[in-house]
Amino acid sequence: METWIQVQEEMKCVICNQAETVPGLASTLLERGQMALTVNNIPARVCPYCGESYIDETVAATLLGQAEKMSRAGTKVETWDYSQALESLPG
User: What are residue 8's phi and psi, to 5 degrees?
Assistant: First the structure.
């Protein structure tokens, strides 16, 4: 089952102020102490001019929750696809 979290519709890039963001995918690195988690293919709004990406609040909460679980489990370095974070959610 594929879940796609909808992100905010129209939004002007606050970094370059040159373009409206468009739906796309982003990657991020989350670090805490000795733990590093890279997550790829995150649904986001992306500026076509400068490449800045904006991740929806719900998506960010999901990522931070998974990173917290991994930190408690003692994970040091991990690379995930966003769909892996969704698959491990309850329900």
Answer: -45, 140
DSSP 20-72: B-EEEEEEEEEEETTEEEEEEEEEEEE-TTT--EE--HHHHHHHHHHHHHHHH
Q: Are strands 22-32 and 35-46 parallel, antiparallel or unpaired?
A: antiparallel
Whether 7 and 24 have beta carbons less than 8 Å apart is answered as no
Give dist(CA 70, CA 68) in Å, integer. Answer: 5
| Structure token pair of residue 24 | 């796309």
pLDDT digits (tens, 9 = 90+) for 18-63: 999 999 999 999 988 888 999 999 999 999 999 999 999 999 999 9
Q: How far apart are CA 76 and CA 19, in angstroms?
A: 38
Backbone angles phi and psi of 36, in degrees to 5: -135, 125
State the Cα–Cα distance between residues 6 and 73, nearest whole angstrom: 30
